[in-house]
Amino acid sequence: MTISILGAGAFGTALAVALSANGPVTLWGRSIGWGRENPRLPGVTLPAPVAVTDDLGAALAAGTLLLALPAQALRPFLDDHGPALDGRRLVNTAKGIDLDRLTGPAQLLAEACPAATIATLTGPSFAADIARGLPTALTLACADAETGRALQHALSTPVLRLYRTTDLTGAELGGALKNVIAIAAGVVIGAGLGDSARAAIITRGFAEMTRLATRLGARPETLTGLSGLGDLTLTCTSPQSRNFRFGHALGAAADWDATTTVEGAATARAVAALAARLGEDMPIAAMVAALAEGRVSVDKAADMLMTRPLKEE
């Protein structure tokens, strides 16, 4: 199975390093001038089986394409290149909901590439850990079970273990929604509200994730797996998470580099709009959206959550 990775950010580069253990991999980026070491992964040198290129045509020669693009960059990329990707196995790694369409990556891919077979690779992982060869377990979701098995074997390595599911919706939403809750967890710690408050945010946030995902067709058990609870646990508890660090900066009223991609901020806005459309109650997501947009203070957000009507769990 020939593999190309589209997107030479930290995660795409880390996947290239990991998957090169199985054979040649092509890594594509729009402008790559860093040779064999990506500055976003300092100390990690690309192994010899990784071919780096800015020639999209060369990358598209592979039958399996891993799309390691930011969630909000995926639709514009598909608008420009969708027909050229069609008919292949497309594995999305973005975790988010498109702001304009209020849909996940799988639907965007299906509309732009109707003859493609679509899968999602998601779960608790940091690029630095994968690139260093640290043990990592992910979810590979594909509605076509046979293709899912083939991808599971092709993309697994001695230190990268993939679990398979046909619940593409659940896996995709778990990865997207947990980023929103990770921002909330960061806000709590940054504001000095304590670990007990963070535990409450994680727990109630998981309830929000499950409500919305199952409303959209996900299986509840998928949310309790790696792509949901597993990824939620990681990003809500580690400063390696950009979403957690962004929330921490909000909570601490600290400066944040606006050029740093924070998937959860855009996803929170999309989730708030989607929840309103569906009539779903998503108070944490709504507060994260308001905080990220500067429409409410941290103190006011905490007060609004703590003074909501009392109810059964």
UniProtKB/TrEMBL annotation:
Sn-glycerol 3-phosphate binds at K95, G123, S125, K178, D231, S241, R242, N243. Residues 167-302 form the Glycerol-3-phosphate dehydrogenase NAD-dependent C-terminal domain. Its EC number is 1.1.1.94. The keyword Metal-binding does not apply. InterPro entries: G3P_DH_NAD-dep, G3P_DH_NAD-dep_C, G3P_DH_NAD-dep_N. It comes from the Bacteria. NADPH binds at F11, R30, K95, A127, R242, V262, E263. Keywords: Cytoplasm, Lipid biosynthesis, Lipid metabolism, NAD, NADP, Nucleotide-binding, Oxidoreductase, Phospholipid biosynthesis, Phospholipid metabolism. Pathway: Membrane lipid metabolism; glycerophospholipid metabolism. The active site is at K178 (proton acceptor). The keyword Metal-binding does not apply. It catalyses: sn-glycerol 3-phosphate + NADP(+) = dihydroxyacetone phosphate + NADPH + H(+); sn-glycerol 3-phosphate + NAD(+) = dihydroxyacetone phosphate + NADH + H(+). Catalyzes the reduction of the glycolytic intermediate dihydroxyacetone phosphate (DHAP) to sn-glycerol 3-phosphate (G3P), the key precursor for phospholipid synthesis. PANTHER family: GLYCEROL-3-PHOSPHATE DEHYDROGENASE, GLYCEROL-3-PHOSPHATE DEHYDROGENASE [NAD(+)] 2, CHLOROPLASTIC. This is Glycerol-3-phosphate dehydrogenase [NAD(P)+]. It comes from Paracoccus marinaquae. The gene is gpsA.
